[in-house]
UniProtKB/TrEMBL annotation:
InterPro entries, sorted: Bact_Sigma-Reg (IPR052016), PPM-type-like_dom_sf (IPR036457), PPM-type_phosphatase-like_dom (IPR001932)
Listed transmembrane segments: none
Keywords of the record: Hydrolase
Record-given protein name: PP2C family protein-serine/threonine phosphatase
Length: 397
């Protein structure tokens, strides 16, 4: 435990850009590590980029078929045996379910790897939290996440997101946007309290920087209303006014909004546009529809009404933008509801964080080699709910 505390202190004392140097030095001194590398997951979730070799001079490793990728996908430590009796531990670097990357530590022997694996896994958790804080003060780790240059619109959209995955006792969330390095209008946002989860899935009209500006305005208007304690319908109305005041109806944004009660599974919903919901319940995939309302900013002073919805423990909810369900093949065939239902059923055994990437990969096969006509968004929510009698008094519905 003294070794772990030394690692924790070193990370907390390190300058933002020196976290890798700090963890490398303390793991070498306290655990006899022979090599320490930090890999960050790229925006497309296809490779793990080495932090120690900027600017992009090091070799990335695959998320799909590498030892480090195995640890990243499973979110469990993975031990790799190396020549000379050495062992290499690949440790997930994650914060509350948000998967940032992998810490790879080479130790002098298998016995040392087995002995120190639990403490090193905790050190990787501390590193993850320090990375989140450090990103406020350095671009180093954000640079390491990109294997290609982001468009300006994509830069704006990624900075707007809460994360790509999140876990609590009541639920798991995972989300992904494509094309990862050139997105412009689609977005998602979530926020939780003691008793509630609010989730927004948005699809802004237009292309490039104009679409990104529209989405930034709408998301920040929704956040402003949410943080003022307004109801879901009032959040939609306030954001609608903000968008209309700026664009006068020339541009608008589609959004699907949820306010889940974590204790009961009851939810309030505002459906204002094109994002869709598909539910997997007890092995059956079904499309869920709500009363359609006007997109945000289409007309002046639109009133919104929240509907009731209910989720059960074991439900999987998959939210998609029109860049998914309306995607066309080279022959012009729409991806459609049946193909989406098959993709959701085929990914039923994957964790929520892995589902969006798997569905988007299958969608890419449908599109063939043609460049996508629209950006695409998939959000997956696995609902466990709260055990009876475990409800807190943190909020009202």
């Amino acid at each position: 435990m003294k070794r772990f505390l030394a690692a924790e202190r070193a990370l907390r004392a390190a300058a933002p850009h020196e976290l890798l140097d700090a963890i490398r030095a303390v793991l070498t001194e306290q655990y006899g590590a022979e090599d320490v590398e930090l890999f960050m997951a790229d925006y497309g979730l296809t490779v793990l980029q080495p932090v120690s070799a900027l600017p992009l001079a090091g070799e990335p490793v695959s998320v799909h078929n590498s030892p480090a990728g195995r640890a990243f996908g499973s979110q469990e430590p993975y031990r790799e045996e190396e020549r000379g009796g050495r062992a290499r531990l690949h440790l997930p670097v994650s914060v509350r379910g948000d998967r940032l990357g992998v810490l790879s530590v080479t130790l002098p022997g298998t016995d040392a790897a087995r002995r120190w694996a639990p403490e090193l896994a905790e050190a990787a958790d501390v590193l993850a939290r320090e990375l989140i804080v450090a990103e406020r003060d350095t671009d180093l780790y954000l640079q390491a996440r990109r294997k290609d240059r982001l468009t300006l619109a994509a830069e704006m959209q990624w900075q707007l997101l809460p994360g790509r995955s999140c876990s609590r006792a009541e639920y798991d969330l995972g989300a992904q946007l494509e094309p990862a390095y050139a997105i412009f209008g689609d977005n998602f946002d979530w926020s939780s309290t003691a008793d509630h989860l609010m989730l927004y899935v948005t699809n802004g009209m237009g292309e490039g920087i104009e679409a990104a500006l529209l989405t930034n305005l709408a998301i920040n208007a929704l956040r402003n209303a949410r943080r003022a304690g307004l109801s879901l319908a009032d959040q939609a109305a306030l954001a609608d006014q903000a968008v209309y005041a700026h664009y006068q109806g020339r541009a608008y944004l589609s959004v699907l909004m949820f306010d889940f009660d974590l204790g009961t599974g009851r939810a309030r919903v505002v459906d204002a546009g094109s994002p869709r919901l598909v539910r997997l319940r007890r092995g059956v995939v079904e499309h869920v529809t709500f009363e359609a309302q006007l997109p945000l900013g289409m007309f002046e002073e639109t009133d919104y009404v929240a509907q009731d919805f209910h989720v059960e423990p074991g439900d999987r909810l998959v939210f998609v933008s029109d860049g998914v369900h309306a995607a066309a093949s080279p022959k012009g065939e729409e991806y459609g509801e049946e193909a989406l239902a098959r993709a959701i059923h085929s990914t039923r055994l994957l964790p929520a964080a892995e589902v969006p990437r798997a569905i988007l990969r299958e969608l890419g096969g449908h599109r063939g080699r043609s460049a996508p006509d629209d950006d695409a968004l998939v959000v997956c929510l696995d609902w466990r709910g709260r055990p009876p009698g475990d409800r807190t008094d943190g909020g009202q519905m």
